[in-house]
Amino acid sequence: MVDAPVATRVPSRPDARPALGYAMVLVAATLFAVNGAVSKVVLGSGISSLELTQVRSTGACLGFLGAVLLIRPGALRVTRREVLFLVVFGITGLAFVQWFYFLAIHRLPLGIALLIQYLAPLLVALFARYALHERVRRRIWLALGLALTGLALVVEVWQGLALDGVGVLASLGAACAYATYILMAEHETARRGRDPISLSFYGFLFAALFWATVQPLWQFPYERLDDSVSLLGNLEDYTAPLWLLMLFVVVVGTMVTFALVNTALKHVSATRVGIAAMLEPVAASLIAWAWLGETFGPAQLVGGAIVLVAILLAQTAR
Questions:
Q1: What's the pLDDT band for 71 if we cut at 50, 70, 90?
Q2: Residues 295-309: pLDDT tens digits?
Q3: Range of the domain at 225
Q4: N or C, fewer C-beta in 10 Å, the chain?
Q5: Is residue 10 part of a domain?
Q6: SS (HEC) of 229-294
Q7: Whole-model pTM?
Q8: Is 232 left (phi over 0), alpha (psi -120 to 50) or beta?
Q9: Is the dihedral angle over the CA atoms 63, 96, 176, 114 positive or is it negative?
């Protein structure tokens, strides 16, 4: 979801259509999963996780700017008090969550990387309980225990961490950054009333500026955009131009999915949206198996199921 939709608390609406909202979330989760496989192909072509993050941030920034100017230009107004918040939100909540995500899926099976990243709701619930002193149901402790048990099975700790250590750390980093994103986005939209689209624009704006500082835009390998790259795995005999794959990541994997999730929030509560979005790691695992030929051992499958149950409990604990 870093593929990360803004979490908002919305009141019930008389014109709400829950069935439509759930359908939008499920479509978005599936597209996010496909985007993960497309991103792995791009990364496999030699484009670095930082370069792909830079492309996604810059492209999404321009796309959301166009959307805001077309739909609600007045939403671009910001107060001095908001600027620092938006800078931190863009760098911590968006720049790092994307970079950690791309780094993780480049070094780990797609489904496992997403499972670990989806521990973010558990971190959010724990933060809400101990930092914000919100009421959190006791099931959070069961969720924590299940998550740790499931992760132990997923990473096969009895084999001395069978998975790539850097990939696991990147996934955990993505989970922390995603949790930060959720908390900050919720604060800005629910308490300050900023609409999700303009918040997305400013988030991606400062993410893009941050990565442009780390790696100036003129250093990007533009000459490679016309390269035809293999789709890998079971589709390795087929190729696609690199620019088209990157365009998919920006438009479908970010713009379309984000629009679907934000529209769904008008019909379904944020908690229910988060639960329905749990389809993403499941769909990503299936797509990675069918497309990329990624497989998991029996213990990892059991561990993944346990982690999903933990995420479900964490979503409903707050």
A1: confident
A2: 878 888 888 888 888
A3: 18-317
A4: C
A5: no
A6: EECCHHHCCCEEEHHHHHHHHHHHHHHHHHHHHHHHCCCCCHHHHHHHCCHHHHHHHHHHHHHHCC
A7: 0.86
A8: left
A9: positive
